[in-house]
Design brief:
This protein has 3 domains: 166 residues, 3-Layer(aba) Sandwich (Creatine Amidinohydrolase, Chain A, domain 1); 95 residues, Alpha-Beta Complex (Creatine Amidinohydrolase), CATH 3.90.230; 113 residues, Alpha-Beta Complex (Creatine Amidinohydrolase). The chain has 12 helices and 14 strands.
Length: 389
């Protein structure tokens, strides 16, 4: 993947221009409780350009810099800390294994930024994600501008880096699609496991445990908190308690996808606890399945989420009329959004390193963005919701 990271950095360098500099930190460590932390996961944007997975790291990209454009700031080697927390790449590892032209200690971030802002007109950095790095960037920016009478070019603005990166991430490479297929395959096997484990008397958390176990067999982790919702629990779209007992006659909704090598999958399926659908359940299931298949078959370059959503709404509305659950013409029911009592979410979303992946849904002209080759999305005309029979 090292060639892929370099290719991405080169593209970003071209986008920002030779008079600019880009600053991109990784995620911060998050406390879970008192002296325990959540497992660390690198910031997706940062990892996209570096492949570096350690905490306390920052990338600097300075196009045309004589000493090298790609700079990493990382934790220095610390043998005592490694005993407790594991291997650290350090300065030499950042250059040797991640192809940084130069690497420095992360604690020197303030002085490094002050030096590198010289002769740069624009600073590309997204404010608001990390208070500490915000201070470092803004202080360096203000400091060099305060000394501009000494001569030379000084930066005049701080520009958000995210829009450029997120448009890049929207188009997946062949390697990214290969990784995503692997994540999807693992997730499919987990859903087959759910079908095997789903029985009257089993608890939702036991199904959740089976999903995690299936992910773990392949070195994957949940891409998001799995939703294992039986009966009326499925009418809470983001139900995560996963605590109730499955009952014969109920349906089980499972929304679960793994993350493998930093790429996510996202799959939702609804199955009968008893092993077979009742006639009513099958009729509703068929409406959803038809809408989903129609949407999937319509995905192609030039298509839009807006068109797919409208298509799904029309298909679902027709199905609800056929079952006698809605009365009126398709047009009038859609105009007054009568379907929203049963179907209240969107048709899908971008998928990639994040389960709800980055990238704009609207074009610069305010219209739904047209699909292009390399974009990856979910189709989630996944359910109709009935709180009462």
């Amino acid at each position: 993947m090292s060639h892929e990271y370099k290719k991405r950095r080169n593209k970003l360098s071209r986008l920002i221009g030779r008079d600019s500099i880009a600053i991109l930190p990784t995620s911060s460590i998050k406390m879970r409780s008192r002296d325990t932390d959540y497992p660390f996961r690198a910031n997706s944007d940062f990892y996209y350009f570096t492949g570096f997975s350690e905490p306390e790291a920052l990338m600097i990209l300075a196009p045309g810099r004589p000493e090298g454009e790609f700079v990493l700031l990382v934790r220095p080697k610390d043998p005592l800390k490694e005993i407790w927390d594991g291997y650290m790449e350090g300065i030499s590892g950042a250059k040797r294994n991640y192809l940084a032209d130069e690497a420095f200690k992360i604690e020197d971030v303030d002085s490094i930024l002050s030096t590198m802002f010289h002769n740069r007109q624009k600073v590309f950095y997204t404010l608001g994600n990390d208070e500490n790095y915000d201070k470092s960037v803004v202080n360096a920016f203000n400091q060099i501008r305060a000394n501009q009478r000494r001569g030379g070019v000084v930066p005049t603005e701080i520009i958000s880096l995210e829009p450029l990166i997120h448009e890049m991430r929207l188009i997946k490479s062949r390697e990214e699609i290969r990784l995503m297929k692997k994540s999807a395959k693992i997730s499919v096997e987990a859903h087959y496991r759910v079908m095997d484990e789903c029985n009257d008397g089993v608890f939702e958390y036991q199904i959740d445990a089976a999903i995690k176990h299936q992910f773990g067999k392949y070195g994957a982790v949940p891409a998001y908190h799995s939703i294992v919702a039986s009966g009326a629990n499925a009418c809470t779209l983001h139900y995560i308690e996963n605590k109730d007992k499955l009952k014969a006659g109920d349906l089980l909704l499972t929304d679960a996808g793994c993350e493998h090598q930093m790429y996510a999958a996202d799959i939702t399926r609804t199955i009968p606890v008893s092993g077979s659908y009742t006639d009513e359940q099958k009729a509703v299931y068929s409406i959803v399945l038809d809408a989903q298949k129609e949407a999937i078959n319509s995905v192609k370059p030039g298509q839009t989420f807006e068109n797919l959503q409208n298509q799904a709404i029309e298909s679902i509305t027709k199905g609800l009329i056929k079952l006698g659950l809605l009365k009126g013409t398709v047009k009038s029911l859609i105009e007054r959004k009568a379907y929203k009592d049963f179907y209240m979410h969107g048709i899908g979303h971008w998928l990639g390193m994040d389960v709800h992946d980055v990238g704009a849904y609207m074009s610069d002209k305010g219209k739904s963005k047209k699909f292009e080759a390399g974009m990856v999305l979910t189709i989630k005309a996944r359910n109709l919701y009935f709180k009462e029979k």
